[in-house]
Amino acid sequence: MLRKIGRLFTIKTRFEAWLIIYALALGAVERGQHYLQTYPGWGGWMLACACTGAVFLAGAKLLDSVKAPQPALAGGPYRAPIQRRTVTGRSRPRRQLLRTAARSRFSRRTD
Fold first, then answer.
1. What is the largest CA-CA distance in the chain?
2. Which residue has the higher pLDDT, 9 or 38?
3. Domain for residue 57, yes or no?
4. In whole angstroms, what separates CA 94 from the centre of its chain?
5. Can you tell me the mean pLDDT for 9-25?
6. Please, are residues 25 and 62 in contact by the beta-carbon 8 Å criterion?
């Protein structure tokens, strides 16, 4: 029974997360207005900005915690792991040496 009640308080979709962020923002703005009336001047503005800034942090955390809908897999539930080629193997192509051993191909020197 407690598990069923606990599911009511679980955020499952991004829409629910946005509704909670909206409610947090309304409360933060109301609290900020209270701070502006109680502490006029610079201190009140700083406390009001702190209230609204906390909504940004909490909203980002909420949206990150809710998973976006996953696209359906076309090939079925199993997907083979990606085979990556190693670059450091012996079959790696090497730079060709020039026939004239000491001369660079970019050199314009004419001895």
1. 94
2. 38
3. yes
4. 40
5. 91
6. no
**Between 76 and 44, where is the model more confident?**
44
Domain count, the chain: 1
Residue 18 forms part of a structural domain = yes
Which amino acid is present at 98? Answer: L
Residue 103 located in a structural domain = no
Residue 56 Cα distances to 30, 37, 63, 102, angstroms: 16, 23, 11, 63
Indicate the range of 3-12, 53-62, 63-72, 95-104 predicted with least confidence. Answer: 95-104
- Domain-located, residue 92: no
Full DSSP string of 40-81: TTHHHHHHHHHHHHHHHHHHHHHHHHSPPPPPPPSS-S--PP
Domain that holds residue 59: 12-65
Backbone dihedral angles phi then psi of residue 101, each to the nearest 5 degrees:
-55, -50
